[in-house]
Amino acid sequence: MWNPLYEEKDLYGKGCPFACPHYGRTITYPSEGLCPNTEHLWRGTVGLPVFWNRTPREVLDAAAATVGKVLANPDQLEMNRRGSIG
Question: 57 and 65 in contact (C-beta within 8 Å)?
Answer without folding.
Answer: no
